[in-house]
Amino acid sequence: MTNLIEDSLKETSDGFIHYSDGLTEVGLLTSAVIEPQKSINNEEYDVIIIGAGFAGLIAARELSLRGRKVLIIEAKDRIGGRTLTTQVENRNFEIGGTWIHWSQPHIWTEITRYGFSLTESKGAAATRMSVLLDNGTKLKEVPMADHWVAMGKAMEKYSDVDGFQGRTVMPLPHTPFTSNEAVKMYDQLSMQDRLNQVINSLDDNNEEIIQMLLSLLSMNMQGNIAQGGFIDHLRWWALGDYDMNRMFEKLGRYKIKEGTSALARAILNDCQKVTLLLSTSVKSIDRTSRNSVIIRTQTDELLIGRTAIVTVPLNALKKIEFMPSLELQKQEAITIGQCPGGIKFWVKLEEPVGNWFGFAPYPNPITMAYTDDEDGFFIVGFGPDGILDIQNIDAVEKELNKLLPNVKVKYVLGHDWRNDPFVLSTWSWYKPGQMSSSLMALQKSEPPVFFASGDISNGWRGFIDGALESGLTSVRHVQQYLTKCST
User: Fold this and answer.
1) Quick check: 82 and 96 in contact, CB under 8 A?
2) What is the full DSSP assignment across 301-359?
3) Side-chain half-sphere CA neighbours of 170 within 13 A
4) How far is it, in rounded angstroms, from Cα 311 to Cα 59?
5) How far apart are CA 477 and CA 483, in angstroms?
6) Partner of 95 at 20 to 30 A CA spacing, among 130, 186, 203, 366?
7) What is the CATH number of the domain that holds 430?
């Protein structure tokens, strides 16, 4: 592809910024918007990749470097999927997927490959912490160190289903079905079911610690923990080395300094013989022929490939018609979908608050928030089930004031991923029973159609690392299939 100018910023239709003076801007400036190309009628590709998130981009790079002719079709006007870096006042904001860690193998390989660096969300290691109690009516400021240690012990009790901190259930989190029977058993529990089992043993029923635990659990799945599968918590716990401090560092402390969109562009820039179509959504995928796939776009353009890789988010897959229908178990999983998640937003305050962390249990509109910079001008916040209208700056300020009294918000920015028609979810979290019943079915290839997504990976499902893992896996399967067809 042509060389990409890393510092060029163009406006995507995704996202918004709402200022305190009432001005609202729809769409955000980002380097993820690039010049699209046009497909050539009747041209046949080796691989058509649907979706230009990290799963699709890594698949396109690796297949093109193996000499495959690749077409990427992306419904949005940009690349990056559920990641998006925007700049406001010369500062990067990550609107979607954000945090990474050097123990995440696939993303760290890319960081090394392209020479990127890390920056830190300072509030993730704050000394000052607020907890909202009594159904959101009582605010208490507590010392971070003491309460964090106590909450770590509560999390250990919550996670310790086997006397070994879950190690016998999830000994190899990148191979999640190693202990298949144990996984099936604990996958039947919701997160609330597990809490009910241990609630009376949590730190002598210390209400502050329990509320902090509830806040963290709800934030992790971005909703009512009665709707979230406990096995997904146990997977995160295992990936976090069975330790709350390690888990949280991997989940929410370190970011790509150059931005996730810069990484997406770097991967795309390494592609060879790849055509990219933006603002092109898919209506149907016809795999009637074993030798080709016909993709019909919403504008009824027909695109032909020997194979296709579908990287569409799980909750949006039901919008695509497959002909013939997919295998029943996969189709049922697509129909049910995963937890839709909640909201994430960024604010700039009028005055700094220092390094700060706040907890509020479900169903508070904000369940967790913390400062991102050294001084505490910038806060990232999370809430469940889309309860808070993050496009309403007054509503955001009102809810933040419950955790930080008298703060004034200069602007708020974000994107409504739950209601984005091409996404319909935030990060991946499965419902009770869904991992053991559906994950392998969702991953299964139905040649000449293959599947890849951060929503169906084995390890860091729901993270950039998981999307890369899934994309690389699909490359292996497609290569094997195309090689076999050529012999």
Assistant:
1) yes
2) -EEEEEEEEE---GGGGGGSEEESPPPHHHHHHHHH------EEEEEEESS---SEEEE
3) 27
4) 10
5) 10
6) 130
7) 3.50.50.60
**Same domain membership, residue 463 and residue 399:** no
Give kind and range of the element (H or E) at residue 59: helix 54-65
- For residues 364 and 385, state if they share a domain: yes
Task: Determine whether the annotation assigns residue 248 to a binding site.
Answer: no
Tell me whether residue 65 is in a domain: yes
- Segment 285-306 shows an average pLDDT of 95
Q: What does the pLDDT average to over 121-141?
A: 92
The reply to whether 124 sits in an annotated binding site is no
450 is a domain residue: yes
**Angle between helix 191-198 and helix 207-221 axes, rounded to 10 deg:** 160
Distance CA 450, CA 444 (A): 7
Structural domain of 265: 10-119+257-338+422-486
Residue 382 annotated in ligand binding: yes
Binding site annotation covers 395? no
Instruction: Report how far residue 12's alpha carbon sits from residue 26's, in angstroms, rounded to the nearest whole number.
Output: 9
Looking at the structure, do residues 319 and 441 belong to the same domain, yes or no? Answer: yes
Question: Do 214 and 309 share a domain, yes or no?
Answer: no
Ramachandran region, residue 435 (left: φ > 0; alpha: ψ -120 to 50; beta: rest)? alpha
Binned at pLDDT 50, 70 and 90, residue 127 comes out as confident
- Tokens representing residue 136 in the block: 């959101």
C-alpha closest to that of 384 among 235, 229, 216, 241:
216
* Amino acid, single-letter form, for residue 409: V
Residue 444 and residue 431 share a domain: yes
Q: Is residue 455 part of a domain?
A: yes
CA distance to 19, 291, 482, per residue, from 66 (Å): 48, 20, 12
Whole-structure pTM value: 0.97
Mean pLDDT of all residues belonging to the chain: 95
Residue 4: inside a domain: no
Give pLDDT tens digits for 54-81: 999 999 999 999 999 999 999 999 999 9
- What is the rounded CA–CA span in Å between residue 379 and residue 348? 7
Angle between helix 244-252 and helix 144-159 axes, rounded to 10 deg: 100
Give yes or no: residues 233 and 372 share one domain.
yes
Q: For residues 183 and 198, give the distance between their C-alpha atoms in angstroms, rounded to a whole number.
A: 19
* Tally of domains in the chain: 2
Choosing from 414, 438, 473, the residue where a domain stops is 414
